[in-house]
DNA sequence: GTGCACTATGACAACGTTGTCTCCCCCCGG
DNA sequence: CCGGGGGGAGACAACGTTGTCATAGTGCAC
């Protein structure tokens, strides 16, 4: 900046005035300064600016399990859209479902003085956030609640959705329904399992633990589980996939099966409608999830001090065929 | 920091020493400082630190068309992985295929003093980058080259891949092949079209412009194109989809067709193997693309001054069934 | 006892900006 | 001719850190 000032024959303050469009600058001077800026390729340092002004940095942090997962990337996109509309930029990070990594990312973002943080939490301990939140960094939890603190949270109706899935299958005559979920340490997985039990109860189906399997989904593990649950005299006639990745693994495991069991997935996914049969899913609006969370965050950024809110977004069952197969 | 210093009864310099793990601090003093830091919830301001040290900011910028598109989110993930291994964080932005937006994002990132920029360019004019690059911000172009400047670039073999696709279909007896691509303003789309023509030539197929359609893919437009090209006496017997989105639209348009033409897609996509018939694609390793670009960027960040490089990654045809259908 | 090396700490400036205050000059009214 | 007002510009401090240098105290060898 001082280089620009020297070249234009003015003080650095005047350069500052020009780059900030302040009024009290003579047009001729402004033009000289602009020319110097152009010539030197000067670009003002936003870090220094934010430091001096004590203003916000114009960034927010988003932490998800994996930015490469289509579910989270759709979330990312929705968040980015809102952030852009508020003139903010987004720092992203993948926690890899690892709470230490999550913590690291959050604290790093705080050190960068992001204006707020959106997080799909990996762990159950969020005490480390208390000082940061007290220091004025708003945090909104997405898709899963905070472990041990009270904070803004946006969730989907995992319980209701899974109950609906069970009811749908029961309506089509199924009494032996398998449930394949992600690790029960994950809130959504546990909640959907709870919905599964509740759905069984409501539909007069006796809950059979041997038809349930909860683990981090890999193709191998899901393949084994499908083989085990879908065969034998007591085989399940239908399966509920606890999330999009489980669903894909189940579909792949069943790709060459002669008799495909009925199936309902939780989470919609691209091409579900083009498979044979098309996959019935409990769908929810991932964009709406990101929207709601980002809107809530920016309300906080702009000073909303009301008590922490908990938003639960609705889900709806999309019947496409795979869930309407008879036992 | 001065609050911490006051509480611990030391100077701020000593606090600085403690937070930086500098050796010459008495353990007792360090402990007092740590306690004060804990008590006050102090976290050092990375912005100020970077300003003072004149060091890098520890961030890189990534600009893609749409972070929500699975293709780009996989890229994002690969980039993040490398960035993390270099201790950097990633600022992301979606250009929405709009060159003004791209420019805005790039300049904003530069103002934030990112250590480097990875960009899937939207436009063809990148002169605006020259001053930034001269000022020391390395830029690597991904998936498409820069319009009018020389810069590091990582591409995939669009030309070869499309030639391979045509040859594959020709081998299976097809002589009338349709090509549906994205807008020809996009480098990859134009390049693949070029590959299509070249493929026709090499296989002794007369290139028929009426079988080609290049436009931003929407379900409606692709549906119309499919209807037009696949019917009538001179109908195409096979179709090449120019990218993953075109492929999905084509599949949807053909979902209820009685006679499905042969099809090959450019870009692999999830579940392609589970459709009926499974979709033959020209696949390339998106992670490798991100990896290569990020590695190249960090080499520049660390001072590599060698002439701009152009890396072209190989593609390979994955025959799954849809491309092996007879005419 | 003096000099020296070493440890632990602090004072101060500087990074690149911008807010505040001050100054100068010119124009206009009386 | 003088005083006041306003437009245009600069000097200086400050934002939160850290690098450099200085200082005070301690222990040890001569």
UniProtKB/TrEMBL annotation, chains A, B:
UniProt entry tagged with the keyword Cytoplasm: no
SUPFAM superfamilies: lambda repressor-like DNA-binding domains (SSF47413), Periplasmic binding protein-like I (SSF53822)
Keywords: DNA-binding, Transcription, Transcription regulation
InterPro entries membership: HTH_LacI (IPR000843), LacI/GalR-like_sensor (IPR046335), Lambda_DNA-bd_dom_sf (IPR010982), Peripla_BP_I (IPR028082)
Domain of life: Bacteria
Pfam family of the protein (one): LacI
Record protein name field: Transcriptional regulator
Species: Amycolatopsis camponoti
Source species taxonomy: Bacteria, Bacillati, Actinomycetota, Actinomycetes, Pseudonocardiales
């Amino acid at each position: 900046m001082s280089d620009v000032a020297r070249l234009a024959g003015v003080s650095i303050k005047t350069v500052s005035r020009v780059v900030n469009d302040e009024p009290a600058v003579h047009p001729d001077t402004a033009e000289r300064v602009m020319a110097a800026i152009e010539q030197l390729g000067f670009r003002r340092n936003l870090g220094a600016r934010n430091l001096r002004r004590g203003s916000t940095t114009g960034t927010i942090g988003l932490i998800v399990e994996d930015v490469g997962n289509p579910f989270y990337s759709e979330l990312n996109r929705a968040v980015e859209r809102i952030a852009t509309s508020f003139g903010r930029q987004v720092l992203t990070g993948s926690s890899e479902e690892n709470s230490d990594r999550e913590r690291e990312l959050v604290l790093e973002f705080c050190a960068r003085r992001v204006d707020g943080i959106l997080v799909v939490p990996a762990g159950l301990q969020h005490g480390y956030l208390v000082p940061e939140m007290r220091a004025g960094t708003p945090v909104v939890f997405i898709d899963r609640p905070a472990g041990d603190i009270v904070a803004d949270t946006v969730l989907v109706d995992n319980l209701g959705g899974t109950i609906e899935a069970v009811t749908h299958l029961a309506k089509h005559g199924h009494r032996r329904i398998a449930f394949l979920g992600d690790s029960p340490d994950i809130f959504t997985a546990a909640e959907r399992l709870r919905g599964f039990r509740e759905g069984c109860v409501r539909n007069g189906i006796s809950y059979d633990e041997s038809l349930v399997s909860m683990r981090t989904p890999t193709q191998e593990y899901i393949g084994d589980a499908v083989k085990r649950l879908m065969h034998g005299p007591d085989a399940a006639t239908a399966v509920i996939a606890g999330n999009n990745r489980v669903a894909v693994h189940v579909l792949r495991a069943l790709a060459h099966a002669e008799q495909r069991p009925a199936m309902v997935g939780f989470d919609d996914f691209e091409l579900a409608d083009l498979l044979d049969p098309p996959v019935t899913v409990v769908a929810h609006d991932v964009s709406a999830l990101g929207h709601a969370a980002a809107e809530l965050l920016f309300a906080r950024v702009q000073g909303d001090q009301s008590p922490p809110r908990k938003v639960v977004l609705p889900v709806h069952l999309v019947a496409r065929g795979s869930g309407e197969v008879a036992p």
